[in-house]
Specification:
The protein has 342 residues and is mainly beta. It is 9% helix and 46% strand. It has 2 domains: 94 residues, Immunoglobulins (Immunoglobulin-like, Sandwich); 219 residues, no CATH class. Strands 9, 10, 11, 12, 13, 14, 15 and 16 form an 8-stranded antiparallel beta sheet that branches. A 5-stranded mixed beta sheet has the order 1-8-7-4-5, with no helix packed on it. A 4-stranded antiparallel beta sheet has the order 17-22-19-20, with no helix packed on it. The termini are far apart.
């Protein structure tokens, strides 16, 4: 064999095993929503490893193509690190022959930011009750970071827009508190609705700590209960839940604060567990409603139940009000754990 041929044979394994750079890059470069890389001949797929903390914690994806759509939206500018490695048959192993890496900063998604950069009190009100007593909602907010400021917006029942009535809050330092005995009246209106606490865009993104209390202001005193503020993110895909027919001493109302357009499905069962009725109700986005359960379900006999399920993002809740005292209680089904990166 000629010397040149021997030299080529000698060098061939080294050439084949030489490392290469997949040239991983962001798409688009200024506001990335995906990454892409060069195709490596012979690779059957690619292992994409993603990390928000310089690979202290990671998530991996097996990708057959040379592009990867980032499966997240963020409410604040967030840095992610990516590592892409070529995989080969027959065992889909990584031999280290070709890989690439990239660090990028995702920019806030405007719609996602609107849904996550706030907290919501699903129901508040300032109305006259069934027996003449006044139903009110008190509100106390406490700063949990420096330089917090923003708006408290009341979305009346049957509507919802950025121009709804609101008041501002401003905190100069941590542990300051603002309180209102009747927050709806303080905003300058009456009726039932929901409350959004929204930090200003150029302010500390964290919302203040919120404590809301519903109470009936009667001549004999006040009766009421506390209601937590919730994170919209927890209700992007709300779980189904079942409600029993209420005790005759109580009135049952169903409420929905939509985040997007949503469809509510109501499946009613008789006391033997057989399906009694199935109804669906569409609602627009940023909408609040509270209605007697009988309007959606029909009259329920003792032992009957109904199940609510949802398409779209919505905060569901129901209220139980004692007929004699008008003492209200608000129940918000438990949601998934909250995070600000989806």
């Amino acid at each position: 064999m000629r010397p040149i041929a021997l030299l080529i044979l000698f060098l061939a394994p080294a050439l084949l095993a030489a490392p290469c750079d997949l040239n991983v890059r962001a798409l688009p470069a200024d506001a990335p929503t995906a990454i892409e890389w060069d195709r490596y001949i012979g690779a059957q797929s690619y292992l994409v490893t993603e990390s928000p903390d310089n690979f202290v914690t990671t998530r991996s994806y097996d990708i057959p193509a040379t592009t990867f759509t980032i499966p997240h939206r963020v409410s604040e500018a967030t840095t992610f690190s990516y590592r892409v490695e070529a995989k080969f048959e027959p065992d889909q192993v990584i031999d280290g022959a070709c890989r690439g890496a990239l660090e990028l900063t995702m920019q806030p998604d405007p719609q996602f930011r609107r849904m996550t950069r706030k907290v919501i009190v699903p129901i508040v009100g300032s109305v006259i009750g069934a027996t003449g007593a006044k139903f009110r909602t008190s509100l106390r907010i406490t700063s949990n970071a420096g330089q917090q400021r923003g708006r408290i917006v009341f979305h009346p029942a049957g509507q919802g827009s950025n121009s709804d009535p609101s008041i501002r809050y401003v905190f100069d330092h941590i542990k300051q508190t603002l309180a209102w005995d009747d927050i709806v009246e303080a905003i300058g209106t009456t009726g039932l609705g929901s409350l959004d606490i929204i930090p200003d865009d150029d302010s500390e993104p964290l919302a203040p700590t919120v404590l809301a209390r519903h109470y009936t202001d009667a001549s004999s005193g006040t009766f009421g209960s506390f209601e937590p503020a919730v994170l919209p993110f927890d209700f992007l895909t709300p779980p189904s839940f079942t409600v029993d027919a209420p005790d005759p001493r109580f009135r049952l109302n169903l409420g929905f604060r939509t985040l997007t357009s949503a469809i509510v499905q109501v499946l009613a069962f008789d006391s033997t567990g057989h399906v009694k009725s199935l109804k669906t109700f569409p609602f627009p986005g940023d909408y609040f409603t509270l209605v007697p359960a009988s309007q959606l379900v029909g009259e329920l006999a003792p032992g009957e139940t109904f199940t609510l399920s949802f398409s779209g993002s919505v905060i569901p809740f129901y209220t139980l009000t004692e007929n004699g005292t008008n003492d209200p209680a608000v129940v918000i089904p438990r949601a998934t754990s909250s995070r600000f990166v989806q």
